[in-house]
Amino acid sequence: MKSVTSIFVLFILFFTACNNGQTPDNSLNWQSNLENAIAQAKEEDKAVLVNFTGSDWCKWCIKLNDEVFSQDEFEKYADENLVLVRLDFPRSVPQTQETKLYNNSLAQQYGVRGFPTILVFNSTGELVAKTGYQQGGADNYVNHIQSFL
Length: 149
Known about the structure:
Blueprint: H1 2-17, E1 30-31, H2 34-44, E2 47-53, H3 59-69, H4 72-81, E3 82-88, H5 97-109, E4 117-121, E5 127-131, H6 137-146
Parallel strand pairs: 1-3, 2-3
Antiparallel strand pairs: 2-4, 4-5
Helix pairs in contact: 3-6, 4-6
């Protein structure tokens, strides 16, 4: 019985360690409603970054999360300057029908054709950029976002 428990624990640890960034960084405060985020951004004089992602299957989404969103440099910038929204289109993570419809309607409204697609709204709620993955890590991505604001 002891060996079965040990194998189970090792199995759980293995799959947790081999996650490949598929679980979004939990230290960032990602919201799931764009309208609420824009209202908050107006109140706090911040921009809004919207991440259209396929978090559990999209290679470039996972890369963007690993290289940018999970890095301290981005987290610091986001805490001070951004309201974050994640609109996820997973293949193996269950979502409510309401979430699927909401995410799909925004993807259609903003012409999202691939993942990751990043939208940037200024502090007045105006869409100022549509972008995606950029090479160069968190510092480069922060500069990329700042260039739109």
